[in-house]
Amino acid sequence: MAISTKALVIGLIIGLVIGGTTSFFVKPKEIERVTETVRGPTVTEREMIPETRTETVTKTVFGPTVTVTKTVTPTPTPKPTPPVGYSRDNPAPIGTSLDIEFEYWLENYKARIMLLEVIRGGEAWKRIKEANIFNDPPEEGFEYILAKVRFEYLEGPDPDTKYDLSPLHFTAVSEDGKDYERPLIVDPEPSIGVSLYPGASHEGWVSFHVAIEDSKPTMTFGRDYKGRGGVWFKLYEG
User: FRET partner for 165 with CA separation of 20 to 30 A, picked from 121, 187, 196, 208?
Assistant: First the structure.
């Protein structure tokens, strides 16, 4: 009986199994797997041969807010020097004309003042004594100063407001900043005391009683009730 090819193959396989075990393997297709780790090595599993690769990751780390206190020493702004004649520390010399706005009986006035001449010591006392026989000589350690002043009344509250100028409106101040008391004497003629209307002017003498050792007294006019402002003149040469 003829044996078919199919039967022959089946019989051959059965025979081989019965006669011994033959093993064989089909090599599988190679599979490559890559695993990436951030900030770590990259491993390629190909026959277990490692490969290292570094990947840089930028991270913003939020931490506490730090306040830094910096001490800055500011550059001091120089105090501007008042114009000559408008402060006790910067009095005007003899012969200087100064304009001033001042308050008198709660009203505003404008004037121009010039210190024309200064006489001190024995000559001043001689003229004061001649002005009135009842004038007292200077006290011990003191002497007289005579100041000749020109006063021009520029402007008042209105054109018809009279201004009564008096020797009491002028004050002598010592070099170390002390107001001298007004001497109770009659000034030589013409005295500075006068009544003026706006536009009028007058020249006259005013007397001061100062310490002999005070070499740099000053004369002031127009200060406020706290002693601020006004115009200032040297009662000395230089």
Answer: 121
